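FORM 7B: Structural annotation worksheet

SECTION A. Query
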Amino acid sequence: MNAADASASASAAGSASTGGSDSATGSESAAGSGADARPEGTGTGRLVLLTTSHRVAPGLLSWPAWQTLHAAQRVLCADPEHPQLPYLREAGIEVETAAPTARELVDYCVPGDRTAVILTSAVGESALTDGLARLAGSGRETMPDLELLPGSYDLPGARLLDLVQVMDQIRAECPWSSIRTHRDLAKYGIEEAYELVEAIEEGDREALREELGDVLLQVVFHARIAQDAPEEPFSIDDVAGTIVEKLVHRHPHVFGEEAAETPEDVKAHWLRTKAVEKQRESVTEGIPLAQPGLALAAKLASRVRSAGLDVTVPTGEGIGYELLAMAVRAERDGIDPEAALRAAARTYRDAVVAAEASAATES
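SECTION B. Predicted structure
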């Protein structure tokens, strides 16, 4: 059972046993504030569901969790392979490998005002929490205080660890994924980037979330392939480390002493830093020529303008030169020509759909 499932079940049981108040909340507050993990007893005992995150190294528990574990008369866990067990025993905490029923725990805690801690796992916890909820909801039982205590919890970004783990398993066990190369995946990276842009421009929040995940998958997949390379291998940690270092270095107004009052100040420093880092001989270096034509023309124009160069836009016969001039003018006016053309194309698409619908109606 994960922490969210345990929380929902414990909240339901706790609410029923206290006439609507959530006793789990008090425990979470104590954990967050550093207060003593065992409040004054009510004379009916205390039953604590201790949750942990598999994304946090075993043995790293909150101080209220350690206090509660040491103070409890009984600590129980249904899973004999629970990763926390060796560390609890090393700390001198006796853990019973058992899966008591809700009835047994209530009968233990209430008469002697005793504390029992259940180290939650996937083994038998649903039956326990359901049983506690039934007893509490019956209105005929004297119930112990039911509390949910987070022993460890996920930090923002923790689910990225799950993605890395899943990708590892897929790379090892999937016949298709296990033989992919960077070149094999290149086209998918382009497709996913376009689908992300479409979701943004359409204002579709659900699609945006999904497409961001698909783009993220490309990053993790490529990093996993690179990890297997016989020469110059690198991992997702190396990728993350490189971008973190780059971001910190290019934001001295955030992480250092330099001041930046306006977005223009930030952009100017960014460009100076990139010039020093890359030691490029031309402002055109680093511009991918394979990108869409309007975007390429606008990027070249942007580099020229930022560098303060006086470059006459080439002229000649044909639509290409006309489009080039339009892209340069759009960039100068602060317009993304690629986005503008896509917007116009979507309007054209809508007109086509409307014409098809009209034709179908007439027929």
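SECTION C. Observations
The beta strands are 46-51, 74-77, 96-97, 115-119, 145-150. Residues 238-279 form one domain.

SECTION D. Sign-off
Analyst initials: ____
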